[in-house]
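Protein in question quoted for reference:
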Amino acid sequence: MPETPPGPGAGPAAGKQQGAGRVLAEVAGEQGGSLQLLDHPVGRMAHIDRHPQAPKSAHDPLPELAQPIVQRALARRVGPCGRTHPGQGQTPHAGVGQPVHGLEAVSGVLGIPRWWPTGARVSVVLSHGASRDMNDPVIEFLHRELTDRQYLTLRFNHPFAEARKRRPDSMRVLRRTLRAAVAILASDPTAAPAHVFLGGKGLGGQIAADLAGSRVRVDGVFFLGYPLHASGKPEAVQAEQLYRLISPMLFIQGTRDRTCDIDVLRQTLTRVGAPTTLQVCREADQHFKVLKKSDRTEEEVQAEVLDGLDGWMSKIRE
């Protein structure tokens, strides 16, 4: 009897089988260090790993989905991290500016789950915060575990992180980079997701909200530690972008996050028109870390974040 592909949200049991749902497509740089989403001029396809029991068919999604990411989608759309630039064999457009930080590529990892594109076909794009890159422990954990749970999952670097700059890029550059990352997922219509969720940590969530507010169709936006105000200054709320959103929103906040007072956030969300959900992580800070004297572990907090995000996305699709 053929095995039935589980849908997203199938839970830990579905994702903990030997090798199930691990990251199946990676693109590595020429030096074999960082993972690249571009093949020209600084990246190349390294390998496509396949689940040993995954079915091989004429509609195998891996080549169709992975190759456009490397050779077409970002080579034209993200280009130098947010501007449009030509792929191989194309003529540059007049007036194109210089690459951001001199980059021609940003790094990223695409997690293709077993059985894709069958089932619910749900994708998640994870954006890192201002002080970390795509290898942030929380982002990396969610990327791996959501792929295990049958989500097509993408994490990537923004230009400033790729260039190892401390100061984030302008919102215009950040928004364009995220927009191009989302476009990757639809580069092959036969393997494109039916549902798209955007979000991230800190600044990453703000970028997702900015893009979702610019008439980009998404099923929901999630915030992992939303920076509602400056550290220790809850009286200076900055929430204008939330009022423009129409997509459902999930806020996962730590009680020790000094950039988001929980009570102030609750008051703010009463004025937001779109559906909102708040999940509070006890004793966690903005990076979802806990103190050594806490009765909780960071692994417990990360699992709580994962289950909250997975459960929320499942409810949105009901």
